[in-house]
């Protein structure tokens, strides 16, 4: 007597479309995400500080000025001499409007930038009517036995 084997129809789920969709979603979100390039610049290495606190979140978009270790300012993606910042700020205020004077100014100085250049930048901003300032530093991580630069 012949025993017939029962054929079981097991279906396996094809995960290819789901994986494809996941990769498409990842690519989509990578394209539409906006990073605030204004807050970062590859030439700037912030000084370390043990007293750094997270900044308070605000709806205002601050004016960010970077100061390189060579003593040049970067504002709006363009690198200029600190002495030329008065003209750049004046033009920016003319274009964006007088309410720009109420925005906070964030100065991100390279850790090897001269302190005098930071003070010059603050003075130039004050001469243009800007009054709210914040300086940026990186939190110093305490490691026992390790020395920081």
Q: Main beta sheet, described? A: 5 strands, mixed
Mean pLDDT: 78
Total DSSP helices = 3
What's the gyration radius in Å? 27 Å
What is the SS-derived class? alpha/beta
Could you give the distance between the termini? Answer: 87 Å
**Principal-axes shape call:** elongated
Poorly predicted ranges = 144-149
The count of strands amounts to: 7
Q: Helical amount among residues, as a percent range?
A: 25-40%
Strand content: 15-25%
Quaternary state reads single chain
Question: What is the strand arrangement across the widest sheet?
Answer: 4-3-2-5-6
SSE topology string: HEEEEHEHEE
TL;DR?
With 149 residues, this protein is of the alpha/beta class. It is 28% helix and 17% strand. It has a domain at 70-141.
Describe it.
By secondary structure, the chain is of the alpha/beta class. The chain has a domain at 70-141. 28% of the residues lie in helices and 17% in strands. The chain has three helices and seven strands; from the N terminus they run αββββαβαββ. The chain has helices at residues 16-32, 85-96, 115-127; strands at 48-49, 63-67, 72-75, 78-81, 105-109, 133-135, 138-139. The chain has a five-stranded mixed β-sheet with strand order 4-3-2-5-6, covered by helices on one side. A two-stranded parallel sheet has the order 1-7. Strand 3 (72-75) and strand 4 form a beta hairpin. The chain is elongated. Mean pLDDT is 78; it is low at 144-149.
């Amino acid at each position: 007597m012949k025993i017939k084997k029962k054929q079981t129809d097991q279906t396996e789920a094809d995960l290819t479309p789901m994986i494809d969709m996941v990769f498409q979603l990842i690519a989509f979100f990578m394209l539409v995400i906006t990073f605030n390039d204004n807050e970062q610049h590859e030439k700037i290495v912030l000084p370390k500080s043990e007293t750094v606190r997270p900044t308070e979140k605000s709806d205002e978009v601050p004016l960010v000025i970077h100061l390189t270790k060579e003593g040049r300012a970067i504002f709006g993606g363009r690198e200029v001499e600190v002495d030329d910042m008065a003209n750049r700020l004046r033009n920016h205020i003319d274009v964006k409007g007088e309410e720009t004077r109420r925005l906070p100014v964030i100065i991100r100085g390279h850790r090897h930038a001269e302190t005098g250049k930071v003070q010059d930048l603050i003075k130039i901003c004050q001469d243009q009517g800007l009054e709210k300032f914040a300086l940026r530093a990186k939190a110093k991580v305490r490691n026992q036995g390790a020395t920081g630069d």
